[in-house]
Amino acid sequence: MAIHRNYNSKEEFFTKRLAEIFNEYTNDDFMRTTEGIFYDSSHLVHYFTYLYGWDEYKDFLAGLIRCDFGIYFLEMINDYLIGKWGHLASKYTLTAFAGALYNTFTLWSTGGYVETPAQLSANLTQIFNNCECR
Q1: Where does the source fall among the domains of life (predicted)?
Q2: Which residues of 11-49 are buried (b: 16+ CB within 10 A; e: fewer)?
């Protein structure tokens, strides 16, 4: 892809591609269910399965992290969570959760995706199960 012809900077390319991925994820998530809470197993398994299940997404996100542009991924996760779950939890709780999702994905991708989405979900659910939500 000719980034220099179609975009003004690498950052513009990364943010536009991330926006596309998160728009697709948002649409898919909306079609699935609106029930539950952000840290429940169903939502977490969906998150990890969605990002892992599409090689294009998995490779792009892992590459973004390797090239030290992961902050854009983290910002997208944070914006998504606050937009969807801001009525149920504080922005501090959701920002902490966004960091947990980002760091878990980073560790998972750099470790070769050994664990299943269900295993990752179980770990995060256990951590956030006592979350103080509004």
Answers
A1: Bacteria
A2: eebbbebbeebbeebeeebeeeeeeeebbbeebbbbbbe
Residue listed under structure tokens 């951590």: 127
- Has residue 77 been placed in a domain? yes
Nearest Cα neighbor of 43 from 91, 85, 99, 89 is 85
pTM of the model: 0.84
Question: Is residue 72, in this structure, part of any structural domain at all?
Answer: yes
**What does the pLDDT look like over 43-96, one tens digit per residue?**
899 889 888 876 778 888 888 888 888 898 999 999 999 999 999 999 999 999
Range of the domain at 31: 7-128
